[in-house]
Amino acid sequence: MLLGIDVGGTHTDAVAIDIGDAPAVAASCKVPTRHHDLLSSVTEALTTILGQVDKSAVTQLNLSTTLSTNAIVQNKTEDVGVIVSAGPGIDPHNFMPCKDFHVIDGSIDHRGNEVRALSTRQLAEAVDACRGNGVRVFAAVSKFSTRNPRHENLIRRTVCNCKSVDVCEHADFVTLGHQLGGALNFPRRVATAYFNCAVWRLYNEFATAVEEALDEMGLGHVKVNILKADGGTMPLPQSRTLPVQSIFSGPAASVMGIIALTDIFHDSVILDIGGTTTDIAVFADGAPLIEREGIDIGSHPTLVSALKVHSIGIGGDSAISVVGPEVRVGPNRLGPSVCLGGERVTLTDALNYVGACKVGDVAASRKAVDAYAAARTLTGEKLAQGAVAYAAQAIQDATRALVEEINSKPVYTIHELLEGKKIVPKKVYLMGGPAEAMREELFQRFQLSTEVPANFDVANAIGAALTRTTWELELFADTQRHVLFIPTLSYRENVPSGYDLDDAKRDAVNQLTMQLDSMGVFLKAEDAQITHASSFNMVEGYDRVGRNIRVKCQVRPGVIKTFGEGR
After folding, report:
1. Model's pTM, two decimal places?
2. Burial 525-552 (b: 16+ CB within 10 A, else e)
3. Which residue, of 216, 545, 556, 563, has the greatest Cβ tally within 10 A?
């Protein structure tokens, strides 16, 4: 039995799923999300679910958490010492993410050759300055470190004042830029390393608390995975060193949920209407789109791979307001709906008023809507209808804008680049608590087939439960220098002059398989896919002196089973 928990902005959803010929929801629940104490929401959801199923049958828990996202949004992150060596080119100060930011002389070229040694004097001064400010977590980033991590490793040794990777006297954690991925974008790598450090301590305290809570519940044997923004999961132990990957995992859970619940073949729009926001995703030919370069966190572009999802401040608990003659909804959530004990009328109260749903105390919704409307010289019916119409129109407008933005650029799905593809949605899928109540209003706006699947209210948790572990690596080989390097694994070996692209593909698959095996994840050979392979001759004078080889291999995001199987 698999457990899935999605910590949302308003509710924490949980499901237990029996895996057989086709998955089936054995139990589900919703509990309030307490942002000041996310662990209590997780444990309450777990306790509720375990009261309905045999806990000895549980083998795995997949968890989507807003912890890292909230910490960044609320500026509750830790101070980080960022030390970089850039060499020639754009001044790194143009994209500095924090005050303890130090640029050290030294450079590596695009082939991985050390052009200029790192200034040990400047490095020592930078480390002393960070320590003087009480910094305990550091990011070490060197341009072209994915070809040669020499400078990043030297920064780490200096920061830790040690020779061992495992023993640090003066730092609690160091992120090395080359271990974040193989892409060469230096500004994105700096930002990603910074955020990885900034949320590291908070995230690890949460991870430890989750493990302790599971032990107390008799679930110490259960394997725990954390959802990533790319629509995959990573084992909890690995997530401890890569907490930045858990940012924006909630929207990814909704995309994976709709994949698990429905069979999508065409260009489609997915709307996850929650309590605080509506997440909008677009599928091209049945496949979700991805942010190819990586997501932006605040004003900083990063290397964090993610599904393409746009969020707007429209949800069931979004507050209703009146501005001039216009009734508006959101973007603020000022507490729960009146029907659920709140004090401010919301979209859910309006939906109760017009008869689209019956949530909580419907009479309380009607009374509150009438009172709020009367104070603004409106009837309750006009206020409620106006709120529902405004929410539906705002969702459609945001969807149209997203589709136009997508169509202005190359279209990348989790599977491939679709050359010349223009998205023309043919169907709308709705999920989230208010989905059924908003179905008719949204159908009137989109004028497309509109489907609300079974279990729509806990689709995110279903997506979390069924999402498979994903991992990727990039292999680089320079046969002139006889070097093979896999940045994310810090793996390096010598290769012969005759090493070729087929050798690189084979080694990439083998290394990915071994990495996942070390994480306790069994990988079928056919699930390891080569997504990029290139080999360029290097020429000096008129002679070929070697090959520059690059191979990218990954397990793509997906679900282990769908509810359509066995039907």
Report:
1. 0.88
2. eebbebeebebeeeeeeeeeebbbbbbb
3. 563
